[in-house]
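re: ur question from yesterday

yeah so i grabbed the chain u mentioned. its 236 aa long if i counted rite. heres the sequnce exactly as i have it in my notes:
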Amino acid sequence: MRKTFQIAIDGPVAAGKGTVSRLLAQRLGFLYVDTGAMYRATALLALRHEIDLNDEDKVVALLEKSKLEMRNPLPPKELDGRLTTVILDGEDVSWAIRTQKCGIGASKVAVLSKLRKTLVKKQQEIASTQDVVMEGRDITFRVLPDADLKIFLTANLQARAARRHTQYLTKGMNITIEAVTSEIKERDTRDMQRKIDPLRIVPDAWVLDTSELKIEEVVDLIADKVQKIRNRNTNE
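ran it thru and got these structure tokens back, copy pasting raw so excuse formatting
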């Protein structure tokens, strides 16, 4: 019988999933698992080796030969604004995978069924051994279908574009808000129309719109919900 507490969070790009999940994990003492970072790291790996992102067998073979690790940031060096620390073959690529190119690449490799099975198995193993806050685009229905709390975190296009634009500027990337908006629209289309596990809202998910909410308010709402679930489980 599973004894770990699992929080599964899905939602579109730039809805605040990463920041909310990281802060929530800190609040609860859980492990934060950014599944999107795994796909970004895979894209970076393929790009560096000049492998076609559509060549499933080569991409999977390359991933299986590489070592991909994730952990919560360690103080003081890793407390530089990152949400998670990603180590690829011994190299800290936490920021290298956050480029626009890796984001686009991640959505491309995410349609590879063999690759997804490999990463999903890894994600499920992590969640079976410790309490987790796991976020992505197929967590509530593919990775953790029996999670204690399922959330679909969303926001309107304007809010998401503004957030992503700020992220790019913070990292010194000169890009217009119009370009960011276009990028998000294209990403939404790919995520919702892909043949394998398209982004969707499961019936038992809590749909939480963060458009008009501050990050701290979102974290408070979810933390309160978790406490209610724990209290209910204790009384059963």
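noticed a couple things. Residues 123 and 143 are 7 Å apart (CA to CA). also The chain has one domain: 6-231.
anyway ttyl
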